[in-house]
């Protein structure tokens, strides 16, 4: 005899495993600070590469004005301006990444809590069924 509640729980568990189970389990293996800091390191590297690429594209696009600015201005002032824009870019990108990964971690942990609660309820249903069979 099939237990209707058990079938519903098993289908929910299977859907979770099929859709988002692997990602949630991989996120769930980390502490919050470890997960976010690892992702932020990658984000800072990506932001640095992106800034370098964008700066290179800017130089290629407007190379005449850039070279003219090199001759007219102080090199140290230009370097400080570039560093200032770099820091602003990386800090902004890191803040956005921090918020994104914190939300992602929280949602994954909540989905894992629901998943493990469903597993517990399924285990309770199996235990009840075993007790009922032993009593008969």
How would you characterize the overall build of this protein?
There is one protein chain. The chain is rod-shaped. Helix 1 runs antiparallel to helix 4 and helix 2 (about 30-60) runs antiparallel to helix 4. It has a domain at about 35-100. It contains four helices and no strands. It has helices at about 5-30, 30-60, 65-70, 75-135.
Task: Name the features.
136 residues; mainly alpha; 93% helix; rod-shaped
Q: What's the tally of helices?
A: 4
| Overall pLDDT confidence | 88
CA radius of gyration = 27 Å
Helix coverage percent: over 70%
Query: Per the principal axes of the C-alpha atoms, what is the gross shape?
Result: rod-shaped
**Low-confidence parts lasting 5 or more residues at pLDDT below 50?**
none
Give the distance, in angstroms, between the N- and C-terminal Cα atoms: 15 Å
What percentage of the residues does DSSP assign to strands (E)? under 5%
Question: What's the structural blueprint in terms of helices and strands?
Answer:
Layout: H1 4-28, H2 32-61, H3 63-72, H4 75-135
In short:
The chain has 136 residues and is an all-alpha fold.
């Amino acid at each position: 005899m099939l237990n209707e509640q058990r079938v519903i729980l098993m289908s929910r568990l299977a859907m979770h495993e099929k859709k988002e189970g692997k990602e949630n389990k991989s996120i769930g293996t980390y502490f919050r600070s470890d997960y976010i800091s690892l992702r932020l390191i990658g984000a800072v590297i990506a932001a640095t590469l992106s800034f370098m690429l964008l700066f290179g594209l800017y130089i290629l696009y407007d190379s005449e004005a850039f070279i003219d600015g090199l001759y007219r201005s102080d090199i140290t002032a230009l370097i400080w301006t570039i560093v200032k824009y770099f820091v602003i870019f990386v800090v902004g990108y890191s803040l956005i990444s921090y918020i994104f990964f914190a939300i992602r971690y929280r949602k994954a942990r909540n989905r894992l809590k629901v998943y493990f609660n469903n597993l517990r309820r399924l285990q309770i249903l199996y235990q009840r069924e075993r007790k009922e069979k032993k009593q008969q």
